[in-house]
Amino acid sequence: MIQRTSSLVRAIAALASMRVLAETEPTQLVLPHLVADRAAKEVRIEARATGVQGHTQTEFFLIATNSGHDYEAIAVCMARPSDVHRALEFIGLQPGRPVDPEAIRLWPRGPRVWCEIEWKLPTGGVRRVRIEETVLDTRTGQPLPKTGLVFVGSKWIPAPDGTGKVYAADVEEPNSIASAFNLSTTVLDIPRRGAQGALYDYQVANPATVMPEGTPVTVVMRPEPRPDGTPRARDLDLHVSAGPQPDAHPEFRLCEGVPLRELAKGKLTDIVPSIQTLAERGHDLHLTVRVAPDTPVARLRAIGALVGVLAEHPDVRIEPPPPGQLFYRAFTPDPDFRDRAQRPSQPWELRFQRTSEGQWRAILTQVELGRDILTDQPRFYTTDYPADTPEELRRHLDAHGPGLRVIVVFAPGPMKFGDMMRFLAPLTATHPVVHVYEE
Protein backbone atom coordinates (compact mmCIF):
# COMPACT_ATOMS: atom_id res chain seq x y z
CA MET A 1 0.00 0.00 0.00
CA ILE A 2 1.46 3.37 -1.00
CA GLN A 3 1.90 6.34 1.29
CA ARG A 4 -1.28 8.35 0.72
CA THR A 5 -0.53 11.68 2.36
CA SER A 6 2.04 14.39 1.84
CA SER A 7 3.91 15.81 4.81
CA LEU A 8 1.83 18.14 6.93
CA VAL A 9 4.14 21.08 6.24
CA ARG A 10 3.99 20.60 2.48
CA ALA A 11 0.20 20.21 2.52
CA ILE A 12 -0.36 23.36 4.60
CA ALA A 13 2.00 25.40 2.45
CA ALA A 14 0.50 24.20 -0.79
CA LEU A 15 -3.06 24.82 0.38
CA ALA A 16 -2.16 28.30 1.62
CA SER A 17 -0.59 29.24 -1.71
CA MET A 18 -3.60 27.86 -3.57
CA ARG A 19 -5.97 29.99 -1.48
CA VAL A 20 -3.93 33.11 -2.12
CA LEU A 21 -4.02 32.31 -5.83
CA ALA A 22 -7.78 31.82 -5.73
CA GLU A 23 -8.30 35.19 -4.05
CA THR A 24 -6.29 36.98 -6.75
CA GLU A 25 -7.54 34.95 -9.71
CA PRO A 26 -11.31 34.33 -9.66
CA THR A 27 -11.10 32.08 -12.71
CA GLN A 28 -9.50 29.41 -10.55
CA LEU A 29 -11.11 26.86 -8.26
CA VAL A 30 -8.89 25.53 -5.50
CA LEU A 31 -9.83 22.36 -3.65
CA PRO A 32 -7.68 19.99 -1.59
CA HIS A 33 -5.02 18.51 -3.89
CA LEU A 34 -6.35 20.08 -7.11
CA VAL A 35 -6.54 23.38 -8.96
CA ALA A 36 -8.98 24.06 -11.79
CA ASP A 37 -8.25 26.93 -14.17
CA ARG A 38 -11.30 28.06 -16.12
CA ALA A 39 -9.35 30.39 -18.41
CA ALA A 40 -6.84 27.70 -19.34
CA LYS A 41 -9.57 25.00 -19.28
CA GLU A 42 -7.32 22.79 -17.23
CA VAL A 43 -7.53 20.74 -14.03
CA ARG A 44 -4.34 19.70 -12.22
CA ILE A 45 -4.58 17.00 -9.55
CA GLU A 46 -1.98 15.74 -7.12
CA ALA A 47 -1.55 11.95 -7.22
CA ARG A 48 0.84 9.12 -6.33
CA ALA A 49 1.94 6.21 -8.49
CA THR A 50 0.85 2.82 -7.17
CA GLY A 51 4.03 1.16 -8.39
CA VAL A 52 2.03 -1.51 -10.22
CA GLN A 53 4.43 -3.68 -12.21
CA GLY A 54 4.49 -3.93 -15.99
CA HIS A 55 2.13 -6.49 -17.55
CA THR A 56 -0.01 -6.56 -14.39
CA GLN A 57 -3.74 -6.77 -15.13
CA THR A 58 -5.03 -3.21 -14.78
CA GLU A 59 -8.63 -2.08 -14.35
CA PHE A 60 -8.22 1.56 -13.31
CA PHE A 61 -6.22 4.53 -14.44
CA LEU A 62 -7.01 6.58 -11.32
CA ILE A 63 -8.57 5.69 -7.98
CA ALA A 64 -9.33 7.61 -4.80
CA THR A 65 -7.37 7.32 -1.57
CA ASN A 66 -10.07 5.20 0.10
CA SER A 67 -10.01 2.59 -2.64
CA GLY A 68 -8.35 -0.76 -2.00
CA HIS A 69 -7.52 -1.33 -5.65
CA ASP A 70 -3.92 -0.07 -5.75
CA TYR A 71 -2.83 -3.48 -7.08
CA GLU A 72 -4.73 -2.92 -10.35
CA ALA A 73 -4.52 0.86 -10.80
CA ILE A 74 -1.94 3.21 -12.26
CA ALA A 75 -2.21 6.03 -9.72
CA VAL A 76 -4.02 7.19 -6.59
CA CYS A 77 -5.48 10.71 -6.77
CA MET A 78 -5.28 12.62 -3.52
CA ALA A 79 -8.41 14.63 -4.40
CA ARG A 80 -11.91 13.32 -3.73
CA PRO A 81 -13.81 11.99 -6.78
CA SER A 82 -16.64 14.48 -6.22
CA ASP A 83 -14.08 17.32 -6.20
CA VAL A 84 -12.69 16.11 -9.53
CA HIS A 85 -16.26 16.16 -10.85
CA ARG A 86 -16.76 19.68 -9.51
CA ALA A 87 -13.49 20.86 -11.08
CA LEU A 88 -14.41 19.51 -14.51
CA GLU A 89 -17.73 21.33 -14.31
CA PHE A 90 -15.89 24.48 -13.25
CA ILE A 91 -13.85 24.53 -16.48
CA GLY A 92 -17.04 24.21 -18.53
CA LEU A 93 -17.73 20.50 -18.98
CA GLN A 94 -21.20 19.10 -18.34
CA PRO A 95 -21.29 15.46 -17.17
CA GLY A 96 -23.13 12.95 -19.29
CA ARG A 97 -24.31 9.70 -17.79
CA PRO A 98 -22.67 6.40 -16.85
CA VAL A 99 -23.63 2.98 -18.11
CA ASP A 100 -26.57 1.24 -16.46
CA PRO A 101 -27.19 -2.29 -17.79
CA GLU A 102 -30.48 -2.61 -15.91
CA ALA A 103 -31.79 0.42 -17.79
CA ILE A 104 -30.32 -0.98 -21.04
CA ARG A 105 -27.94 1.99 -21.10
CA LEU A 106 -24.92 0.22 -22.51
CA TRP A 107 -22.76 3.14 -23.63
CA PRO A 108 -21.04 5.80 -21.50
CA ARG A 109 -22.10 9.28 -22.60
CA GLY A 110 -20.54 12.68 -22.06
CA PRO A 111 -17.83 15.09 -23.23
CA ARG A 112 -14.38 13.73 -23.90
CA VAL A 113 -11.51 14.65 -21.60
CA TRP A 114 -7.83 14.51 -22.50
CA CYS A 115 -5.95 13.15 -19.45
CA GLU A 116 -2.18 13.24 -19.03
CA ILE A 117 0.13 12.11 -16.24
CA GLU A 118 3.40 13.91 -15.61
CA TRP A 119 6.23 13.12 -13.20
CA LYS A 120 9.86 14.06 -12.57
CA LEU A 121 12.50 11.68 -13.87
CA PRO A 122 15.41 10.58 -11.64
CA THR A 123 17.78 11.93 -14.28
CA GLY A 124 16.06 15.32 -14.32
CA GLY A 125 13.33 16.72 -16.46
CA VAL A 126 9.65 15.86 -16.56
CA ARG A 127 7.93 13.11 -18.49
CA ARG A 128 4.32 13.50 -19.60
CA VAL A 129 2.20 10.80 -21.26
CA ARG A 130 -1.43 10.44 -22.21
CA ILE A 131 -3.20 8.31 -19.64
CA GLU A 132 -4.16 5.74 -22.29
CA GLU A 133 -0.44 5.04 -22.84
CA THR A 134 -0.14 3.59 -19.33
CA VAL A 135 -2.22 0.52 -20.26
CA LEU A 136 -1.47 -2.05 -22.98
CA ASP A 137 -3.98 -4.12 -24.90
CA THR A 138 -2.45 -7.60 -25.03
CA ARG A 139 -4.44 -8.41 -28.18
CA THR A 140 -2.57 -5.75 -30.14
CA GLY A 141 0.54 -5.31 -28.04
CA GLN A 142 -0.10 -1.54 -28.23
CA PRO A 143 -1.26 1.07 -25.70
CA LEU A 144 -4.95 1.83 -25.62
CA PRO A 145 -6.02 4.29 -28.36
CA LYS A 146 -5.61 7.94 -27.42
CA THR A 147 -9.29 8.76 -27.79
CA GLY A 148 -9.76 10.43 -24.40
CA LEU A 149 -12.04 9.51 -21.54
CA VAL A 150 -15.75 10.24 -21.14
CA PHE A 151 -16.90 12.55 -18.34
CA VAL A 152 -19.93 10.50 -17.30
CA GLY A 153 -20.10 11.62 -13.67
CA SER A 154 -20.55 8.98 -10.99
CA LYS A 155 -24.12 8.05 -10.14
CA TRP A 156 -25.70 9.24 -6.90
CA ILE A 157 -26.78 6.65 -4.35
CA PRO A 158 -28.69 6.76 -1.04
CA ALA A 159 -26.51 7.83 1.86
CA PRO A 160 -25.67 5.02 4.30
CA ASP A 161 -27.24 6.99 7.15
CA GLY A 162 -30.44 7.56 5.17
CA THR A 163 -29.95 11.32 4.84
CA GLY A 164 -30.23 12.18 1.16
CA LYS A 165 -27.81 10.95 -1.48
CA VAL A 166 -24.05 10.76 -1.82
CA TYR A 167 -21.64 10.65 -4.75
CA ALA A 168 -21.04 6.95 -5.32
CA ALA A 169 -17.36 7.24 -6.23
CA ASP A 170 -16.68 8.93 -2.89
CA VAL A 171 -18.10 6.13 -0.76
CA GLU A 172 -18.56 2.97 -2.83
CA GLU A 173 -15.85 0.61 -3.98
CA PRO A 174 -13.92 0.63 -6.18
CA ASN A 175 -13.88 4.45 -5.67
CA SER A 176 -12.88 4.96 -9.29
CA ILE A 177 -11.98 8.33 -10.75
CA ALA A 178 -10.97 6.98 -14.18
CA SER A 179 -11.91 3.41 -15.03
CA ALA A 180 -10.46 1.22 -17.81
CA PHE A 181 -13.79 -0.60 -18.16
CA ASN A 182 -17.43 0.52 -18.15
CA LEU A 183 -18.48 1.31 -14.59
CA SER A 184 -21.61 3.05 -13.33
CA THR A 185 -19.86 4.62 -10.34
CA THR A 186 -16.79 6.11 -12.03
CA VAL A 187 -16.19 9.80 -12.77
CA LEU A 188 -14.47 9.13 -16.12
CA ASP A 189 -15.05 6.09 -18.33
CA ILE A 190 -13.55 4.68 -21.52
CA PRO A 191 -15.29 5.92 -24.70
CA ARG A 192 -16.41 2.49 -25.88
CA ARG A 193 -18.29 -0.56 -24.68
CA GLY A 194 -16.18 -2.79 -22.46
CA ALA A 195 -17.50 -4.71 -19.49
CA GLN A 196 -15.15 -5.69 -16.68
CA GLY A 197 -15.24 -9.39 -17.49
CA ALA A 198 -14.73 -8.81 -21.20
CA LEU A 199 -11.57 -6.69 -20.76
CA TYR A 200 -9.94 -8.12 -17.64
CA ASP A 201 -7.67 -10.57 -19.45
CA TYR A 202 -6.52 -8.07 -22.08
CA GLN A 203 -5.51 -4.85 -20.31
CA VAL A 204 -2.18 -4.68 -18.47
CA ALA A 205 0.13 -1.99 -17.14
CA ASN A 206 2.54 -0.70 -19.77
CA PRO A 207 6.11 -1.46 -18.59
CA ALA A 208 7.33 1.57 -20.57
CA THR A 209 5.46 3.95 -18.25
CA VAL A 210 5.76 2.18 -14.89
CA MET A 211 6.80 4.48 -12.01
CA PRO A 212 8.17 3.48 -8.59
CA GLU A 213 5.58 3.19 -5.86
CA GLY A 214 4.76 6.53 -4.25
CA THR A 215 6.20 8.64 -7.07
CA PRO A 216 4.50 12.06 -6.95
CA VAL A 217 2.60 12.62 -10.20
CA THR A 218 0.35 15.34 -11.54
CA VAL A 219 -2.77 14.41 -13.46
CA VAL A 220 -3.70 17.06 -16.02
CA MET A 221 -7.22 17.09 -17.48
CA ARG A 222 -8.43 19.22 -20.37
CA PRO A 223 -11.51 19.22 -22.62
CA GLU A 224 -11.13 17.50 -25.95
CA PRO A 225 -10.30 20.13 -28.60
CA ARG A 226 -13.29 20.51 -30.93
CA PRO A 227 -12.48 23.03 -33.67
CA ASP A 228 -16.11 23.49 -34.76
CA GLY A 229 -17.32 23.90 -31.17
CA THR A 230 -20.12 21.34 -31.56
CA PRO A 231 -20.80 18.77 -28.83
CA ARG A 232 -19.41 15.32 -29.49
CA ALA A 233 -22.68 13.55 -28.61
CA ARG A 234 -25.33 13.76 -31.34
CA ASP A 235 -28.90 12.57 -30.71
CA LEU A 236 -30.61 10.93 -33.68
CA ASP A 237 -33.91 9.12 -34.20
CA LEU A 238 -34.03 6.01 -36.37
CA HIS A 239 -37.59 5.29 -37.52
CA VAL A 240 -38.16 1.84 -38.99
CA SER A 241 -41.20 0.41 -40.72
CA ALA A 242 -41.95 -2.68 -42.76
CA GLY A 243 -44.94 -4.02 -44.66
CA PRO A 244 -46.21 -7.59 -44.58
CA GLN A 245 -44.27 -8.66 -47.69
CA PRO A 246 -41.35 -10.81 -46.47
CA ASP A 247 -39.12 -9.92 -49.43
CA ALA A 248 -39.55 -6.15 -49.11
CA HIS A 249 -36.79 -4.12 -47.50
CA PRO A 250 -37.65 -2.38 -44.21
CA GLU A 251 -37.64 1.39 -44.62
CA PHE A 252 -35.43 3.56 -42.42
CA ARG A 253 -35.67 7.28 -41.70
CA LEU A 254 -32.77 9.00 -39.95
CA CYS A 255 -33.97 12.18 -38.22
CA GLU A 256 -32.69 14.81 -35.81
CA GLY A 257 -34.06 17.60 -33.66
CA VAL A 258 -37.45 18.88 -32.56
CA PRO A 259 -39.32 19.22 -34.83
CA LEU A 260 -37.73 16.27 -36.62
CA ARG A 261 -35.46 17.04 -39.53
CA GLU A 262 -35.01 14.14 -41.94
CA LEU A 263 -31.35 13.45 -42.75
CA ALA A 264 -31.76 10.31 -44.87
CA LYS A 265 -34.40 7.82 -45.94
CA GLY A 266 -34.61 4.43 -47.63
CA LYS A 267 -32.96 1.07 -47.14
CA LEU A 268 -30.25 0.63 -44.53
CA THR A 269 -27.58 1.22 -47.17
CA ASP A 270 -29.22 4.57 -47.98
CA ILE A 271 -28.74 5.99 -44.48
CA VAL A 272 -25.22 4.66 -43.85
CA PRO A 273 -23.54 7.54 -45.77
CA SER A 274 -25.18 10.09 -43.45
CA ILE A 275 -24.06 8.08 -40.44
CA GLN A 276 -20.53 7.95 -41.78
CA THR A 277 -20.42 11.67 -42.53
CA LEU A 278 -21.41 12.57 -38.98
CA ALA A 279 -18.93 10.07 -37.56
CA GLU A 280 -16.10 11.54 -39.64
CA ARG A 281 -16.90 14.93 -38.10
CA GLY A 282 -16.07 13.46 -34.70
CA HIS A 283 -19.53 12.78 -33.29
CA ASP A 284 -20.73 9.97 -31.06
CA LEU A 285 -24.07 9.06 -32.62
CA HIS A 286 -26.72 8.18 -30.05
CA LEU A 287 -29.57 6.50 -31.92
CA THR A 288 -33.06 6.00 -30.55
CA VAL A 289 -34.78 3.26 -32.54
CA ARG A 290 -38.54 3.55 -33.11
CA VAL A 291 -40.47 0.79 -34.86
CA ALA A 292 -43.70 1.88 -36.58
CA PRO A 293 -46.79 0.53 -34.78
CA ASP A 294 -48.25 -1.02 -37.96
CA THR A 295 -45.17 -3.20 -38.54
CA PRO A 296 -46.12 -6.92 -38.48
CA VAL A 297 -44.46 -9.10 -35.85
CA ALA A 298 -43.24 -11.31 -38.70
CA ARG A 299 -40.89 -8.50 -39.83
CA LEU A 300 -39.34 -7.72 -36.44
CA ARG A 301 -36.53 -10.26 -36.65
CA ALA A 302 -35.30 -8.79 -39.95
CA ILE A 303 -35.46 -5.27 -38.46
CA GLY A 304 -33.52 -6.35 -35.38
CA ALA A 305 -30.83 -7.94 -37.52
CA LEU A 306 -30.40 -4.80 -39.65
CA VAL A 307 -30.23 -2.49 -36.64
CA GLY A 308 -27.67 -4.91 -35.20
CA VAL A 309 -25.51 -4.36 -38.28
CA LEU A 310 -25.73 -0.60 -37.78
CA ALA A 311 -24.88 -1.02 -34.09
CA GLU A 312 -21.51 -2.49 -35.09
CA HIS A 313 -20.40 0.91 -36.39
CA PRO A 314 -17.78 2.17 -33.91
CA ASP A 315 -19.42 5.59 -33.55
CA VAL A 316 -23.04 4.41 -33.20
CA ARG A 317 -24.52 4.00 -29.71
CA ILE A 318 -28.02 2.52 -29.54
CA GLU A 319 -29.98 4.29 -26.80
CA PRO A 320 -32.39 2.61 -24.36
CA PRO A 321 -35.86 2.13 -25.87
CA PRO A 322 -38.33 4.98 -25.34
CA PRO A 323 -41.80 4.21 -23.90
CA GLY A 324 -43.76 1.83 -26.10
CA GLN A 325 -40.64 0.45 -27.79
CA LEU A 326 -38.26 -2.47 -27.25
CA PHE A 327 -34.48 -2.69 -27.45
CA TYR A 328 -33.55 -3.99 -30.89
CA ARG A 329 -32.03 -7.18 -29.49
CA ALA A 330 -35.49 -8.24 -28.31
CA PHE A 331 -36.25 -9.04 -31.96
CA THR A 332 -33.35 -11.45 -32.48
CA PRO A 333 -33.40 -13.81 -29.49
CA ASP A 334 -31.63 -17.17 -29.41
CA PRO A 335 -33.83 -19.56 -31.42
CA ASP A 336 -33.01 -22.39 -29.00
CA PHE A 337 -34.85 -20.58 -26.20
CA ARG A 338 -38.15 -21.25 -27.89
CA ASP A 339 -37.79 -24.65 -26.26
CA ARG A 340 -38.28 -24.55 -22.49
CA ALA A 341 -35.86 -27.45 -22.07
CA GLN A 342 -33.08 -25.38 -23.67
CA ARG A 343 -33.46 -22.43 -21.31
CA PRO A 344 -31.24 -22.15 -18.21
CA SER A 345 -34.27 -20.91 -16.25
CA GLN A 346 -37.96 -20.30 -16.83
CA PRO A 347 -39.18 -16.72 -17.31
CA TRP A 348 -42.76 -15.60 -17.83
CA GLU A 349 -44.27 -16.39 -21.24
CA LEU A 350 -46.77 -14.20 -23.06
CA ARG A 351 -49.05 -15.29 -25.94
CA PHE A 352 -51.92 -13.69 -27.81
CA GLN A 353 -55.28 -14.84 -29.14
CA ARG A 354 -58.05 -13.25 -31.20
CA THR A 355 -61.40 -12.98 -29.46
CA SER A 356 -64.69 -13.65 -31.22
CA GLU A 357 -65.04 -9.88 -31.58
CA GLY A 358 -61.72 -9.69 -33.42
CA GLN A 359 -59.84 -8.10 -30.51
CA TRP A 360 -56.54 -9.29 -29.07
CA ARG A 361 -56.32 -10.87 -25.65
CA ALA A 362 -53.15 -11.85 -23.83
CA ILE A 363 -52.30 -15.03 -21.92
CA LEU A 364 -49.56 -14.79 -19.32
CA THR A 365 -48.02 -18.18 -18.49
CA GLN A 366 -46.07 -19.07 -15.39
CA VAL A 367 -43.69 -21.99 -15.99
CA GLU A 368 -42.24 -24.17 -13.23
CA LEU A 369 -39.79 -27.02 -13.63
CA GLY A 370 -40.64 -30.14 -11.66
CA ARG A 371 -40.52 -33.92 -12.04
CA ASP A 372 -43.05 -36.40 -13.28
CA ILE A 373 -44.42 -38.42 -10.35
CA LEU A 374 -44.33 -41.72 -12.24
CA THR A 375 -41.13 -41.46 -14.29
CA ASP A 376 -39.12 -38.94 -12.23
CA GLN A 377 -38.25 -37.20 -15.50
CA PRO A 378 -38.12 -33.39 -15.74
CA ARG A 379 -41.52 -31.91 -16.48
CA PHE A 380 -42.78 -28.37 -16.98
CA TYR A 381 -45.90 -27.29 -15.09
CA THR A 382 -47.74 -24.23 -16.41
CA THR A 383 -50.42 -21.87 -15.12
CA ASP A 384 -52.20 -19.51 -17.50
CA TYR A 385 -53.59 -16.07 -16.61
CA PRO A 386 -55.79 -14.67 -19.43
CA ALA A 387 -56.16 -10.90 -19.73
CA ASP A 388 -58.39 -8.86 -22.00
CA THR A 389 -56.71 -5.55 -21.14
CA PRO A 390 -53.17 -4.35 -20.39
CA GLU A 391 -54.33 -3.34 -16.91
CA GLU A 392 -55.57 -6.85 -16.16
CA LEU A 393 -52.30 -8.31 -17.44
CA ARG A 394 -50.33 -6.01 -15.17
CA ARG A 395 -52.43 -7.09 -12.18
CA HIS A 396 -51.71 -10.75 -12.92
CA LEU A 397 -47.99 -10.11 -13.01
CA ASP A 398 -48.09 -8.14 -9.77
CA ALA A 399 -50.16 -10.82 -8.04
CA HIS A 400 -48.11 -13.82 -9.15
CA GLY A 401 -44.66 -12.40 -9.95
CA PRO A 402 -42.14 -11.12 -10.17
CA GLY A 403 -40.03 -14.19 -10.93
CA LEU A 404 -37.26 -13.53 -13.44
CA ARG A 405 -37.19 -10.01 -14.88
CA VAL A 406 -37.61 -11.56 -18.32
CA ILE A 407 -40.62 -12.16 -20.59
CA VAL A 408 -40.62 -14.51 -23.57
CA VAL A 409 -43.24 -13.40 -26.09
CA PHE A 410 -44.85 -15.61 -28.74
CA ALA A 411 -46.87 -13.42 -31.08
CA PRO A 412 -48.66 -14.25 -34.37
CA GLY A 413 -46.80 -13.02 -37.45
CA PRO A 414 -49.64 -10.78 -38.73
CA MET A 415 -50.08 -9.08 -35.35
CA LYS A 416 -49.10 -5.42 -35.47
CA PHE A 417 -46.20 -4.27 -33.30
CA GLY A 418 -48.38 -1.55 -31.77
CA ASP A 419 -51.02 -4.09 -30.71
CA MET A 420 -48.38 -6.27 -29.08
CA MET A 421 -46.82 -3.31 -27.29
CA ARG A 422 -50.18 -2.15 -25.94
CA PHE A 423 -50.11 -5.21 -23.68
CA LEU A 424 -46.35 -5.51 -23.26
CA ALA A 425 -45.33 -1.89 -22.55
CA PRO A 426 -46.81 -1.79 -19.01
CA LEU A 427 -44.77 -4.87 -18.10
CA THR A 428 -41.35 -3.60 -19.15
CA ALA A 429 -40.96 -1.33 -16.11
CA THR A 430 -40.41 -4.43 -13.97
CA HIS A 431 -39.40 -6.90 -16.72
CA PRO A 432 -37.13 -4.98 -19.10
CA VAL A 433 -35.61 -8.01 -20.83
CA VAL A 434 -37.92 -9.22 -23.60
CA HIS A 435 -37.49 -11.94 -26.24
CA VAL A 436 -39.96 -11.81 -29.13
CA TYR A 437 -40.66 -14.91 -31.26
CA GLU A 438 -43.06 -15.19 -34.15
CA GLU A 439 -45.51 -17.89 -33.18
Structural features:
439 residues; alpha+beta; Nucleotidyltransferase, domain 5; 3 domains; 11-stranded mixed β-sheet; 5-stranded mixed β-sheet; 26 strands; 18% helix; globular
Word description of this protein:
It is a single chain. This protein is of the alpha+beta class. The chain has three domains: 8-223, no CATH class; 233-325; 333-438, Nucleotidyltransferase, domain 5 (2-Layer Sandwich), CATH 3.30.420. Helices cover 18% and strands 33% of the residues. The protein is built from eight helices and 26 strands. It has helices at residues 8-24, 81-90, 168-171, 196-199, 268-280, 300-311, 390-400, 417-424; strands at residues 28-31, 34-37, 42-49, 60-63, 73-77, 112-120, 126-130, 135-137, 142-143, 149-151, 156-158, 165-167, 176-179, 188-189, 203-205, 216-223, 233-241, 251-256, 261-266, 284-291, 316-318, 348-354, 360-371, 378-387, 406-411, 433-438. Strands 1, 2, 3, 4, 5, 6, 7, 10, 13, 14 and 16 form an eleven-stranded mixed β-sheet that branches. Strand 6 and strand 7 form a beta hairpin. The protein is globular and about 85 Å long.
